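Checklist before submission:
- one chain only
- standard amino acids only
- sequence pasted in full

Submission:
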Amino acid sequence: MIKENIVSIIKWNTKYPILPYNPNKIYGEFSDFNKINLELDENNSVYEMVRDCFIKLELDKTNIWTKAWNPLWELVSKWENVVIKPNLVYHNHPLWEEWILSMISNASIIRPIIDYILLATDWDIKITICDVPLQSANWEEIIKYSWLEELVNFYKKNSVNISLLDLRLEISTQNKEWIIISREKIERDPLWYTAVNIWENSSLMPIIKYSKKFEITDYWSGTVEKHHNKDINEYLVPNTILNSDLFINIPKFKTHRKAWITFWLKNIVWINWDKSWLAHHRKWAKNEWWDEYDKFTINSWLRTNMIWYLKQSKLWIVITKVLYRVYRIIVLKWVEPKKVYMEWNNKPITEWSWYWNDTIWRCIKDLNNIIFFTDKNWILQKNKQRKYLLVWDWIMWWDKEWPMEQTPKYPWIIIWWFNPVYTDSVAATIMWFDYKKIPQIKECFNNNYYILCNNTFEEIIWKSNLKDIKKLNLKFIPSVNWKKHLQ
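Returned file contents:
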C-alpha cells in the first residue's frame, strides 16, 4: 500500500555518470533482467541513489532485499501509458556547459526509473518522455546536453516502446535585444490537444472581476481574458499527458523571479500548451486589483509598457532596438542612477517578478488539479485519475536569478515522493524558508472542491540516509525581489 505522505531524501557526494548510465552492480531484482545486456559502471552512484529512494518510500515493502522485489508494481501495469516529464528549460548559458547542466534534468536520473518500469511490466508498456521548453529554446541542443536522445536510442535498440517529444505549440526567434522577431506555430503532439475547462472551480474565480487586467509578457492586452473570464476558465493541455496512466514529474530545482521556486507544483505549468492561456499577473502597480510591480517609477513604466508594446510589431523592431539602448543608458543611469543595468541586487520589480504576485499561483493550482483529476475523456472528476510520481534531480541545481544569471550548486540530493504539495513544502523547509509564505504551496494545502492532499505538513514522514535531515540548511539564495520575505 503506497503511503502518500512519505518523502524519501538521499544525499551522496557524487556526480552525473556517463552513458548509458548502467548500474554499478547487478541487484537481486534484476538477476533475471536479461533483455538488456548490462555492462556495469562502477562510478554510477546515481542509479543506487534512485534505488535507495524506492526503499525509503517502502515500495513493495515485504519483498525488499529479495529477488522478488518489484517497487513500481502498484504504480504501473502492463499495456499502460507512462509519461515522464523532465525539466528541459533552455539550451544555452553565457558560461556554457556546466551552467546548462544546472538548468536541465539529466538522463542518468531517468535510466533507473525506466528499468524499474520495465521490470514491473515485462516490456509491455508505452513510455513517452516529453516537455515544453522555453519558446526560444533549441530542442536539438537541449536533448544533446541532457543526453536524452542517446538514452532513448539505447532503449529503442533494446525493443522498448519509447518516444521523445517536444510538445511546444509555438517556437519563437529572438534577436540580440531579446525581441521576438518571428513565431512558428505547429501542433507537435501526435494525439492533439484539449481545452480543459475548470469552470467555477478555478482558483482565479475570486479575482475574476479583474480579468481584463490579466496579462502575460510578450502578448497583447486582452489575450488572456479570452480564456479566463466569468464564463470560462480553460487551459490547453496535450492529450499525450491526459492519456497517461502514470505521470512522472522530474523537475530541476530552480529559483524563479516570478514564483520564487520551480519545484513540482510550478513545474506543472508546462502542461499548458499555449502560453497565452496563462494569467501571470494583473496589470499595473500594487493595490487591491493589480500586482505587476510594487510602485510606479519611470523605469518600471517604460519596461512594462512602451518597450513591450513596441516589441509586438515587426515594423518597430529596428526602432525598438535603438530605444531599448537609449532606455538602458538614460533611464537606468541618469534618471534613476541607483538602478544600474544588470546589477540584480538593484533590479527594479517589473513583469510580476516579486513576492506580492497574487495571480500566478492560481494558475499553478488549477493546472495541478487538471493533471490529477482530468480523466481520459478530458472531463474533470472528483477523484484522482492517474498515478503520480515525483523525482527531484538535485545533483546539480541553481539559485539567485533565473533564467540566465543563475549560479550552479552541488547539494548531491535526489528526492522522491507521490504528492507535489508535500514535496514543495519539504524542499522549502530544508532551504530554511517558510513554505507558508510561498503562495502556490500555502494555497495548495487549502483544499476546496478538489483535494490535492489529505495530510498536513506536520503529518509528513521524512525518510533519509541523513540522521538529521530536518536540520539540513542548503544556504539557498533567492531571487532579489523575494529576499527578506521568506523566513
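Reviewer check: Residues 6-294+349-482 form one domain.
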